[in-house]
Specification:
Elements lengths: L4 H19 L3 E3 L2 H25 L1 H6 L3 H17 L3 E3 L2 H22 L1
Antiparallel strand pairs: 1-2
Length: 114
């Protein structure tokens, strides 16, 4: 059975909450509605803009052995923070670190769901 989009947003919101509240000091979310909106915006950005950037950066990504993807993921998280009021990220490298942890947490939460 396929997961619904809203279930994926809810899991991403939980992962984002874990990253913001427990793991990374430079990431803050003001309240629960902002958290849900940030997860929704991040999901939409990752579904639309991220694949385009990954394809356009493929030669450089091959040269860096895929490490550029970590920077792209951080940029997507920073873009979501720039769009959503009440979602704050202190520095770009905080966004990169947060996106790495968010990817790991999302993978773990998704594996429990199956």
């Amino acid at each position: 059975m396929r997961k619904s989009f809203f279930w994926k947003v809810a899991l991403n919101a939980l992962g984002l909450w874990i990253v913001a509240e427990l793991l990374v000091a430079g990431i803050r979310v003001d309240n629960v509605p902002t958290l849900l909106l940030a997860a929704l915006v991040l999901g939409l950005i990752n579904a639309t803009l991220r694949p385009i950037l990954v394809i356009l950066s493929l030669p450089l990504n091959l040269l860096t052995l895929g490490l550029l993807t970590l920077v792209i993921n951080g940029a997507m998280l920073a873009l979501a923070a720039a769009i959503v009021p009440g979602f704050h990220i202190d520095t770009f490298w905080t966004a990169v670190w947060g996106s790495i942890l968010l990817s790991i947490i999302s993978f773990v939460l998704d594996s429990f769901q199956r």
